[in-house]
Amino acid sequence: QQPVQSPQAVILREGEDAVINCSSSKALYSVHWYRQKHGEAPVFLMILLKGGEQKGHEKISASFNEKKQQSSLYLTASQLSYSGTYFCGTAPQGGSEKLVFGKGTKLTVNP
Amino acid sequence: DGGITQSPKYLFRKEGQNVTLSCEQNLNHDAMYWYRQDPGQGLRLIYYSQIVNDFQKGDIAEGYSVSREKKESFPLTVTSAQKNPTAFYLCASSVAGTGAAGANVLTFGAGSRLTVL
Question: Per residue in A36-60, pLDDT tens?
Answer without folding.
Answer: 998 889 999 988 886 556 666 678 9
